[in-house]
Design brief:
The protein is mostly helical and about 180 residues long. The chain has two domains: about 80 residues, Rna Polymerase Sigma Factor, Chain: A (Orthogonal Bundle); about 80 residues, Arc Repressor Mutant, subunit A. It is built from eight helices and no strands. The longest helix has 23 residues.
Length: about 180
């Protein structure tokens, strides 16, 4: 595809998607300067790999996959402990997963604020998963493509994250922050 697209056309694609990619990378890295560097690397790598873009997904989804891998690699080089993917078992007697889904859409302002604070306390990778699924309303298939994972694995992971969020909210409500 790189022979089909001109540098000018690619520049337009970069302009169109740059803010989205930067925001995506910042969700994992937090530091704006680092995120800008990684986002720039993402677009360079995407240009170099244009011939691998098959059109199975949107261009943005394909670029976000590259951004995800670049961000994770950056974190591994900088802060290995930040990307542990071990899941902490949540208490099974807490509210159901559907409760957290309702909180994202119909919860009271106070509960929504508690939920947002709890999400901020999650690992960056889990925050990103929550953001893409709930705020961007991406399908599990798209997220799986971006994060190079199986949709079923992400579904299970989302369920564990939701349970963990409910435990965190309950602790905040009980004042056990």
């Amino acid at each position: 595809m790189s022979s089909v697209i001109s540098k000018k056309e690619y520049g337009e694609l970069v302009s169109q998607h740059a803010q989205h990619v930067l925001g995506f990378v910042m969700r994992l890295l937090s530091d704006r300067s680092e995120a800008e560097d990684v986002a720039q690397d993402v677009f360079v790598k995407a240009y170099q790999r244009l011939d691998t873009f098959r059109g199975d997904s949107s261009f943005l989804t394909w670029v976000l996959r590259i951004a995800y891998h670049e961000s994770v690699n950056h974190l591994r080089r900088q802060r290995p402990c930040m990307i542990e993917l071990d899941e902490v078992a949540a208490h099974s007697d807490m509210m159901s997963c559907s409760t957290i889904d309702k909180e994202f859409t119909t919860g009271s302002d106070e509960r929504i604020q508690l939920l947002e604070k709890a999400v901020e306390d999650l690992k960056p990778d889990d925050q990103l998963l929550i953001h893409m699924y709930y705020y961007e309303e991406r399908s599990l298939n798209d997220i799986a493509y971006i994060m190079d994972a199986e949709p079923n694995t992400l579904s299970q992971r989302l369920r564990r994250i939701r349970k963990r969020l409910m435990v965190m909210i309950k602790q905040k409500e009980d004042g056990r922050d």
